[in-house]
Amino acid sequence: MGFPAQRPRRLRQSPAVRRLVSETRLHPADLILPMFVREGAAEPLPIRSMPGVVQHSLDSLEKAAVEAVEAGVGGLMLFGVPSTRDAVGSGADDPEGILNVGLRRLRDAVGDDTVVMADLCLDEFTDHGHCGVLDAAGRVDNDATLERYAAMGLAQVEAGAHVLGLSGMMDGQVGHVRAALDEAGHTDTILLAYAAKYASGFFGPFRDAVESALEGDRTAYQQDPGNAVEALREVRLDIAEGADMVMVKPALPYLDIVSAVAAESEVPVSAYQVSGEYAMIEAAAAAGMIDRERVMMESLTAIHRAGAQNILTYYAVEAARALR
Ligand code: PBG
User: Looking at the predicted structure, is the pLDDT value of residue 1 above 90?
Assistant: First the structure.
């Protein structure tokens, strides 16, 4: 019997050797924590389909943000849950709207110690649940929505956001918001474009989190799950319009897209481990089917390995602590 000429196992023989040759290392600063703040909440409220995640009150938001900074996370992404909604999402650009009030509170609490990000999309604020305003035929009106996004973006910057996360998938949204910000002198505000965002069933639990009552679906603006070439076009357009960072969303079911975008993008790439990805891990772990912490770290490592520099994840604080 001959000896194998090649022995890859040599480099797996001990923790020290494995550490030496490790190709992918997560760092707390790679992780961004999505947070929800609910108008009128006196205390944090649990979200049924996202065990361990809450709709914060303003006080609990501040406390959780400080803890996240202590854990070393790279950023905080805030979503608002308003108590009233209307056709145009008036609460989105109202300085007293819950997202803007929450942003001011966050920024006051963390200053410049971490990066404060705002979700820039109308779906939490509209009574029909769409990401934009509707035309007379009930379809999402792209260009009328851009005007709403510009107003919303200005309100978010004035409330203290360092980064605006453009998640509505309207054509021209990056260029339009950039122009409105520049016009108002906000040339330093960073735009994170959800460049390749798919019409995904994995967003299901998020609808609980923001109490969205969506009529219909988002297939007329979010991408078809089978399309990959289209994602690269979206990324190219967003970068040309001035996106400072681009995102792929969801993450784990779209690692091929993360990888293709990372190969092509000249700006940092993020991926969003969305609510349904989180809920699947939690449900399987609660049923005793998988090792929760192990799968948490493995999924984050896989997303990072595929090419996402930053990962938005509901596990950000827990994972950051585990990495320290
Ligand atoms: C839009 C938005 C959504 C998510 C983030 N931003 C919902 C959607 O597009 O339907 C989903 C995030 C998640 O599922 O964790 N405001």
Answer: no
